[in-house]
Amino acid sequence: MSVIHVDVVSATEEIYSGEAKCVFAPASMGEIGVYPMHVPLISTLKPGEVRVETESGMESIFVSGGIIEVQPGTVTIFSDTAIRANDLDESKALEAKQRAEEAMSNAQGDQDVTTTQAALAESMAQLQMISKMRGKKR
């Protein structure tokens, strides 16, 4: 069986490095699936879930956005923030969402609005992933 090497790297650490059957990522143009021998590709990522399918199961990782680089035998994901799904903290995500919503109502100018929209999108994506993981545990 053919495999692809996957590296998921945050600004501070390597979150995942290993072999996978395939990878799914939240690219800016929609979710993409990457299999071994995929054509080369570079895309920006939006906040959401990266799923790495391995021989032993599915590894879920939250990314705050970033870049995915695909080569025929390698996928590299760079993100400012990357957190294994099981390590997401719901209370922190809820606090971040609340702060972003408050900042949104006080935003002055396009730059403030854009920054707060990005923070809100990130916290919403974390909460959505936490909710999804909770559903899998039942």
Q: Could you walk me through the main structural features you see in this protein, from its secondary elements to its overall organization?
A:
This protein is of the alpha+beta class and 138 residues long. Helix content is 33%, strand content 41%. The protein has 2 helices and 10 strands; from the N terminus they run E-E-E-E-E-E-E-E-E-E-H-H. A 5-stranded mixed β-sheet has the order 2-1-9-8-5, with no helix packed on it. Strand 8 and strand 9 form a beta hairpin. Helix 1 packs antiparallel against helix 2. The N and C termini lie far apart (32 Å). The model has no long low-confidence stretch (mean pLDDT 82).
What's a concise summary of this model?
33% of the residues lie in helices and 41% in strands. It has 138 residues and is an alpha+beta fold. Strand 3 and strand 4 form a beta hairpin.
Keywords:
138 residues, alpha+beta, five-stranded mixed beta sheet, five-stranded antiparallel beta sheet, 2 helices, 10 strands, 33% helix, globular
Query: Which consecutive residue ranges, at least 5 long each, have pLDDT under 50?
Result: none
Q: What is the β-strand count?
A: 10
What does the radius of gyration come to? Answer: 16 Å
**What separation lies between the terminal Cα atoms?**
32 Å
Strand order of the largest sheet: 2-1-9-8-5
Number of helices: 2
Biggest sheet features: 5 strands, mixed
* Estimated structural class: alpha+beta
Q: What is the mean pLDDT? A: 82
The 3D shape can be described as globular
Strand content: 35-45%
- Reading the helices and strands in chain order gives EEEEEEEEEEHH
Percent helix range: 25-40%
